[in-house]
Write the structure tokens for this entry.
Amino acid sequence: MNAVEFILAGMLAAATPMLLAALGEMVTERSGVLNLGIEGMMALGAALGFMVTYSSGSHALGFVVAAAGGAAISMVFAALALGFVANQVVAGLAVGVLASGLSSLLGKPFESQTLIALPKLALPGLAEIPVVGVLFQQDIVVWLTLLLALAIWGVLNHSRLGLIVRAVGENPHAARAVGFSVITIRCAAIAFGGAMAGIAGAYASTVYTPLWADGMIAGRGWIALALVVFGTWQTGRVVFGAFLFGALSLADLTAQAVGASVPSQLLACIPYGVTILMLAVISSNRKRLRLNSIASLGQPFEG
């Protein structure tokens, strides 16, 4: 397998944890709430997913519990940000640190334990195409994530529910005036974002790297947050950004595979360096950023 095939083979799987978390955060932010606790929620989901999968032998149960755990810890953030009208940045960071601590505590007994990853599912016909065929040999979670991205795009842009979520994010006072419960809708969006972060963490610990090690999320939650801005809150752009960062995250392994003599530490920094560069480029275009941004994002609302 050459370098191109190696990157194509692993790109979608590497992108999946970031894409799941970014899609959940995008929905949360579309409702007008900024949740910076995604990294910790992913870490908690990783620990819960690994614990349950290791104990039960069921990946499906592990994902369900991870989603429930992510949603539950996100409700702590919702209580602070919506119930007590706390600063969303501070509340998100505090809940993220709490979730990270819980992850370390719960995962300690499982340190260095391993699991059997999910099998690959090849798409008939497409998987046999030379070179790019490896792109169509992925586990079922990858395929479901892509379908979920399509579903989220459809709901946000072509359904009444999506219109309500966007209306709450753009002008919560107007949304309340026409009869919508802003707090309820935002709570639901936060819970969805937390559940997605939990599933993302579970995928990272039980499928992508099926072993438990403290700190294994390693900044993926922060990249997911950056992807939402990078994609200017548009589903298709977020998906593209996740694929790009998924490919970049394989730079270290690709260099080893082809025998390149480049320090692994330098290659491991590439995704984070590109994140900073992309955010700087996007932030420099104020007009485009304002055009796609959420009007009430991060602003307190008392229902």
Remarks:
- The two ends are 57 Å apart (CA to CA).
- The longest strand covers residues 120-122.
